Amino acid sequence: MKIKDILAAGSPTLSFEVFPPKGEEAYESVEKAALEIAKLKPAFMSVTYGAGGGTSRYTVGIASDIQRETGVNTLAHLTCVSSTRSEVKSVLKQLREKQIENVLALRGDIPADGPIATDYRYASELIYDIKQFDENLCIGAACYPEGHVESVNKTADIEHLRDKVEAGCDFVTTQMFFDNNILYNYLYRIRERGITVPVVAGIMPVTNVKQIKRICQMSGTYLPARFKAIVDRFGDNPAAMKQAGIAYATEQIIDLIANHVNGIHVYSMNKPDVAAKIGDSLSEIL
Ligand code: FAD
């Protein structure tokens, strides 16, 4: 089923993200975790893609395993920064063979030593090509409530989001954020610019301190005082930090749904127990 149709139903939806293994030896353990998460019957599951394209077959493999074994719809991520047009076409053919109807079209982070291929500069170009390949594929794209790190300002970033929607994307998923007001402000701004596609809120349950350091280094995401207090108090106690991180994410989700942000995507990081706890806490809300 296409994600745009799932979102169009208008009810709150909970979905989860997993990432593929880096090598063959970890395939079985990632597949096991992904299938366990799928047993929670989320609205859909997404499978990320290495920016360098090296893990492409694992992305398609895990997404296809989930669909085949559990019947849960999948969204396969696809990055273009290091791919040629023919490599992109080959992945799209694999998705078609495996009956995967949803693609998250991304540029990917530019590698430190520059892109390996130069067929694509921006995700909007990839979206255009995907549409040409198969106009029936449901296409998602990334968006950044705090602005993308490379962007000069939020206004320019929103203009580039418009390019992606005009190229044919059907919905967008946000980068993680820890203050819902940032999303509410962003929604106001993009709607004002005529961007009307559904916005799925990306929520990261932070379960250890290492994760927080990485998040801040990579994306400069704003951490509210309430969140910092949790890290200060529980950062040295892994079990308490995990519990508090899950509770924080759950509260964020409840506030979003209460404010009619119905699409919730949890960056579950291949952790079935984290996904299950969030799902349980929302059992009467969803
Ligand atoms: P784009 O939309 O191309 O934007 C990149 C930058 O270029 C932005 O600053 C934008 O404002 C600017 N820009 C766009 N068009 C123009 C233009 N015409 N002129 C000038 N500037 C322009 N990475 C992975 O490697 N694998 C994944 O699976 C993955 N999944 C993700 C899922 C989500 C929900 C999110 C939010 C991010 C994900 N990422 C993933 C990270 C993403 O690849 C990076 O954030 C990347 O740096 C930007 O990708 P994009 O598709 O948003 O790029």
Automatic annotation (TrEMBL):
GO cellular component: cytosol
Any one GO BP annotation for this protein: tetrahydrofolate interconversion
Top-level taxon: Bacteria
Cross-referenced InterPro entries: FAD-linked_oxidoreductase-like, Mehydrof_redctse-like, MTHF_reductase_bac
Cofactor: FAD
GO molecular function annotations of the record: FAD binding; methylenetetrahydrofolate reductase (NADH) activity
The name this protein goes by in its record: Methylenetetrahydrofolate reductase
Enzyme class: oxidoreductase
Assigned EC number: 1.5.1.54
Catalysed reactions, semicolon-separated: (6S)-5-methyl-5,6,7,8-tetrahydrofolate + NAD(+) = (6R)-5,10-methylene-5,6,7,8-tetrahydrofolate + NADH + H(+)
Keyword DNA damage: no
Pfam families to which the protein is assigned, alphabetical: MTHFR (PF02219)
Annotated keywords: Amino-acid biosynthesis, FAD, Flavoprotein, Methionine biosynthesis, NAD, Oxidoreductase
Protein family per UniProt: Belongs to the methylenetetrahydrofolate reductase family.
Pathway participation: Amino-acid biosynthesis; L-methionine biosynthesis via de novo pathway; One-carbon metabolism; tetrahydrofolate interconversion
